[in-house]
Amino acid sequence: MAMNDTGEPAAGFAQRVDAMTLARAQAGDMQAFASLYAMFGKPCFNLALRILGNRAQAEDLVQEIFLKTIGTIRSYRGEAPFGSWLKRMAVNAVIDQLRGQRHAAETDSESLRLAEATSDSANPAAVVDAWSLLQRLPARARAVLVLHEFEGYTHAELAALFGQSESYSKSILARALKRLGELVVSSDESMPCPSRN
Questions:
Q1: Three-state secondary structure call for residue 150
Q2: Domains by residue range for the chain, with CATH
């Protein structure tokens, strides 16, 4: 089991790949690719699912990422850990997917509004669940929030990914966080108070 710098088991994209597996994968060894998939398939899926909010789309995207990896792994030079390189590919694939799904209405400043119908019909017990809250954000807002808050991307990196300015990224993030806060407050108000005996 790979360990991180603090001696704990490495997880997600922080897992280390041994040089032999990497060399075999770069030579086209499908067993080595199977090992890479076993290590990084789940982190890629989790990243895609958090941003896209759709299990089937996330599964399809993971397959696309690994098919692309087969064709591009020879270009990996080891300047960054393999997990970081693969994560960058995964993030780019997710952003490309979002661009393909974008509707005209998502380009205006109102794109950060949550679907009110969804929030009105939701089970109050599920509203406080972080996953449920994230799914109520539009895809771009969810992507910016997940990539900034959970994956550590800077506003400059997000601006480059989305082909926008840093202020665009900051604005999207601020509105998304504000809306999540409003959802938490409204869910607290709609939860029945425990009876006092």
A1: helix
A2: 9-101 (1.10.1740.10), 109-189 (1.10.10.10)
